[in-house]
Amino acid sequence: MTTIKRKGRGALNLLANGILAIPMLAIPLLAMTGSPVSAADKNVIWLHVEVNDQAGEHQKVKVNVPLSLIDIVVDSIDKREFMSNLEEGHPSLDIPKLWREVRKMNGSDFVTVESEKEHVRVWKDNEFFRINVQEEGYSEPNIEVKLPLAIMDYVFESRTKDLNFEDLVDQLRGHLPLTLVTLKHEENRVKIWLED
Q1: In whole angstroms, what is the distance from residue 95 CA to residue 155 CA?
Q2: What total number of domains does the chain contain?
Q3: Which domain holds residue 74?
Q4: Model pLDDT for residues 81-117, shown as the tens digit of each residue
Q5: Residue 93 phi/psi, 5° resolution?
């Protein structure tokens, strides 16, 4: 049980650190655009990120990025190289194949960790891949991740199938507004969401 507790804590720290890094990755995207997109433009979907990190160097960060800008950046990424880098840490694991198997399953819990310090649940329903973490001292989950399966498909399958970003955006429209991530951890607060 001690091993499970340690693994749960390590996963929580990795998740929290990754989420807090998102705004720092998004800021350079804003500098790359030559023409700003007006909020009044028809059919614009915005990715919003808000971070309050009282202990950090950047205590409050707000980022608003149109998905059309992310499309430009995504198109410039070599997806094969991205997947190769992802697989380097797990050379014996075929991540796209693993995702295909996960995708076929009906709604199911993949990971459940219950300890004195935290409760972790990772599961999938018909439309979303979800992670909830409830740390000690919280009466409900203080970390929630809700990723549409379409996003996961795009990330893991776009190098072998002809998946395009516009189709992904169209699939997301039916879920808007959509909160992807909320995090409350000690003095940190993060919210990432999509809306039109």
Answers
A1: 11
A2: 1
A3: 2-32+44-195
A4: 655 666 666 667 777 788 888 888 887 788 899 999 9
A5: -110, 125
